[in-house]
């Protein structure tokens, strides 16, 4: 039995943060009923993203602009533990899916609302996407090109962080409910999620003796990425540790720098960084990988996705599974007494609508009446 097999989640979110959260809950065993608008989640237009974020979920389409569609949602909520929504503040209320309405139906409900800027504040109704949240949180200012221009990261940092924080908040609320018997409302801001990743930078800003607000490790000359002779790159991860630094010096041509402590190395940062660039370009990444691994120095070659897929480490860890046409990354942890492998199923739009309606206690005749009342929009023929 999986850890969360006793929980039912109704997920009304689209795109990335909410589905990422409910995917984690699904992998942990929760029953996730994805409520899609007629026509489906817009993310279905990107099949690989859809598959990655929505495995192991049931799908029902509901037209929440119809009275019958709203009633069916409320029937689902009456039997649910968790509800996820990701609209701008005010939208859920217009659809009859706000916390006040749903908590009246199910006082035990854990309701998580994911929005760009939270439920209140000057930016509450501002339109935005991941890059805007990163900009307004200060995160983007810490990422720059060689020319010093802000550089958008290749992955959706705020979206993914929001999904993770939503999962943490939900599980905390479920634990709290077990203790006090009460449901709760979770107000999660995607901009705040990005800001939370800058905790070290914010703490650094409190020290008025530090005038340079560069990211915490960028000033360390032996913590970075260095080109090799084969056109590939090596990462060197020495921070303050003198023993790692001395080992590197003693097995290479920079042994004259051995014995420098961390402060002395910072004082000679430009010189050391230049020496390291000249050093790493003398060997291939494979040669450096072997040499530094054998010397027990924190270093690693930069792998591309195809190299990651062939990695013996990830094969041993069982990090990938194939579901339908796509390769999936599983949760990065294991339980000694339970499985967290994803369910090998990806639902089509509304595929489980009739089954879900039947499980709510409605008859086939009532289902047909709901269909005529446009409660579901356009249904897939799979169910």
Structure, described:
The chain is an alpha/beta fold. It folds into two domains: 8-197 and 320-372, Rossmann fold (3-Layer(aba) Sandwich); 223-309, formyl-coa transferase, domain 3 (2-Layer Sandwich), CATH 3.30.1540. Helices cover 40% and strands 13% of the residues. The protein has 17 helices and eleven strands. The protein has helices at residues 17-27, 47-53, 67-78, 91-94, 99-105, 130-137, 157-180, 190-196, 199-205, 242-250, 262-267, 269-280, 285-294, 305-310, 312-317, 353-359, 364-372, and strands at residues 8-11, 31-36, 58-61, 82-85, 110-115, 184-189, 223-227, 233-237, 299-301, 320-323, 326-329. The strands form three sheets. It has a six-stranded parallel beta sheet with strand order 3-2-1-4-5-6, with helices on both faces. Strands 7-8-9 form a three-stranded antiparallel beta sheet, with helices on one face. Strands 10-11 form a two-stranded antiparallel ribbon. It is elongated, with a radius of gyration of 25 Å. The model has no long low-confidence stretch (mean pLDDT 92).
